[in-house]
Amino acid sequence: MALKLYANLISQPCRSVAWVLKVKGTDYEFVQTNPGSDFIKSDEFKALNPQCFVPVLKDDDFVLTEG
């Protein structure tokens, strides 16, 4: 499974993405991403989205972000 959703379900945009993935029956890995956490400020996450916003949807080398 290559698809990863970095999200926090408190966020409405994150819930929308998770809902669509569920309705479509898409297999994905959910990565809980809390605002202000060390992970969201990490170089690993900044490489995905320099603005440090969620949701981030990653499929192999393709990254789709909000913002």
Summarize the SSE layout with pairings.
Elements: E1 3-7, H1 12-23, E2 29-32, H2 43-48, E3 56-59, E4 62-65
Parallel strand pairs: 1-2
Antiparallel strand pairs: 1-3, 3-4
Please, could you describe this protein's structure?
By secondary structure, the chain is of the alpha+beta class. The chain has helices at residues 12-23, 43-48, and strands at 3-7, 29-32, 56-59, 62-65. It has one domain: Glutaredoxin (3-Layer(aba) Sandwich). The model has no long low-confidence stretch (mean pLDDT 93). A four-stranded mixed β-sheet has the order 2-1-3-4, with helices on one face. The termini are far apart. It is globular, with a radius of gyration of 11 Å.
